[in-house]
Design a protein that fits this description.
three-stranded parallel beta sheet; globular; 6 strands; single chain; mainly alpha; 470 residues
């Protein structure tokens, strides 16, 4: 009997990530009383999105890999890890049944925090659970599959995300012009970098307060940049840059430029398919939760692009792109050449919220924090590559010995997951001590940040009251 179950499970895994997710998303949607047609639609959209993203990754790696290999051989610069952006991590995680387990425990945490009034946010952004799944899978990878440690770590991070969504809400209202009746917020995992941003923002308050006098209108800047700052233009620059580094011929450089433009545009386009894919399941769960929490006013947490209407976000993302490339080349300990993650939308939203859109502060703090994202991508390269091979999702175009990674969100959480995993697996006293100190420091930083945000929210509330009275 056990052999039969094992054979059935292995057969299911061997269907591949896209087929697995089609079946799982469809069945889960049916379980939360979504209609048959909507359930199948959601499952099919997820399968198509995963397949499409895999195709775009293969297009990029097939074109860029030879030039990158020539660059490494001719210069000796150790940027041997190819950055493919967030896409490969989404493909890997949504092809793993553990992502559904992490989604389940996160929903449980959210429900418990709502009924105990520890949060006002109900996070319906289920697709981006994959960000937490990466952290969880990393912790398991280095801890020898310690599911207890992994589950506790993921739940703590998710709880911090929900509280962060609460404390950011007044600032989101201010930035986007929402009134007090609006219930939209975001609990996106990329905003977990906000406490670090707050540390440097406070240092600027003390050491460089005068820089705010030189701030400028980001909307005007974006209009002046025009198409030069678009995704396909940045992709083309990357292609030319990589071609020159690899000493390619003129024809090969043109091909790389056009391929880079296509790839960055398609990353955005295909990435937009994931949200609608998870929507039927998310809607079904939302209706079930609403019945359990009648009469409570809730904030609804959705994806970070609600902030994308602010011109400062895109201005700073474009400014940081060339800085990211330059830092990558000269940063000690970095082996990643940023390609797919060149537009730092994993950092810009937190910069926008903490600095309240002050472009010079955003740029300065963003530049200081870039090394964290490059080191994080370097550290997870082995995990990403090996996991991708194990799941038969290794990008075509890369040599079998090549490593790839992702300049993506949550570098601190990834580093902490690796440290805790290694400490538990080795039971080394020094590592355990470092892990405990690191985790406690991480929590204390968040508690300090929450207190600072609440103070600023209180000041803003008093200011609004005085204006209304006048």
């Amino acid at each position: 009997m056990l052999d039969l179950i094992n054979d059935g499970f292995n057969g299911f895994i061997n269907l591949g990530g896209a087929a697995m997710m089609f079946i799982i998303i469809t069945l889960l949607s049916l379980c939360v009383r979504v209609s048959i047609s909507k359930s199948i639609e959601g499952g099919l959209r997820m399968a198509v999105a995963l397949t499409g993203m895999g195709a775009v990754i293969s297009l990029l790696t097939s074109a860029f890999a030879p030039a990158l290999e020539d660059f490494v051989e001719s210069t000796g610069v150790a940027l041997s890890v190819t950055d493919l952006g967030w896409a490969p991590l989404a493909v890997i995680t949504w092809g793993s049944v553990y992502t559904l387990y992490f989604a389940f425990i996160c929903l449980v945490v959210n429900f418990i925090m709502l009924i105990t009034k520890r949060t006002t946010t109900f996070n319906v952004d289920l697709f981006n659970i994959w960000n937490l799944s990466v952290i969880g899978l990393l912790t398991m990878y280095y801890s020898g599959d310690n599911l207890v440690l992994t589950s506790l770590f993921v739940m703590v991070i998710y709880a911090l995300m929900l509280i962060n969504a609460d404390v950011m809400k007044p600032t989101i209202n201010e930035l986007l012009g929402y009134d007090h009746t609006n219930i939209t917020t975001t609990a996106h995992p990329s905003l977990l970098i906000a406490p670090i941003v707050m540390v440097f923002n406070k240092l600027i308050d003390v050491c460089l307060p005068f820089i705010d006098k030189f701030d400028f209108n980001a909307e005007v800047l974006n209009k002046k940049i025009g198409f030069w700052g678009s995704k396909f233009a940045i992709g083309a620059y990357l292609g030319v840059f990589i071609g020159l580094l690899g000493q390619q011929s003129a024809g090969e450089i043109f091909t790389l430029a056009f391929t880079g433009g296509v790839a960055l545009e398609l990353f955005g386009l295909v990435g937009g398919w994931f949200g609608p894919a998870i929507e039927p399941l998310s809607d079904g769960i939302t209706k079930m939760m609403s019945k359990k929490l009648r009469g409570r006013k809730l904030f609804i947490g959705i994806d970070w692009p609600i902030l994308a209407t602010r011109a400062e976000l895109w201005a700073v993302a474009n400014i940081l792109a060339p800085i990211l490339l330059i830092v990558a080349i000269f940063l000690p300990g970095n082996t990643v050449l940023p390609l797919g993650g060149i537009i730092l939308t994993v950092l810009a939203p937190a910069l926008l919220i903490v600095t309240k859109g002050r472009v010079i502060r955003m740029t300065l703090i963003g530049t200081i924090l870039i090394p964290l994202f490059l080191w994080g991508a370097t550290l997870i390269a082995e995990f990403v590559t090996n996991t991708s091979k194990a799941m038969n999702n290794f990008p075509s175009g890369l040599s079998e010995s090549a490593l790839f990674s992702s300049v993506d969100s949550d570098p601190i959480e990834k580093m902490l997951g690796i440290l805790m995993g290694k400490a538990v697996e080795s039971m080394d006293i020094k590592l355990i001590l470092f892990a405990v100190i690191g985790f406690v420091a991480y929590l204390l930083m968040f508690f300090w940040y929450f207190r600072q945000m609440r103070k600023e929210n209180a000041k803003a509330g008093k200011k609004d009251d005085s204006v209304s009275a006048a």
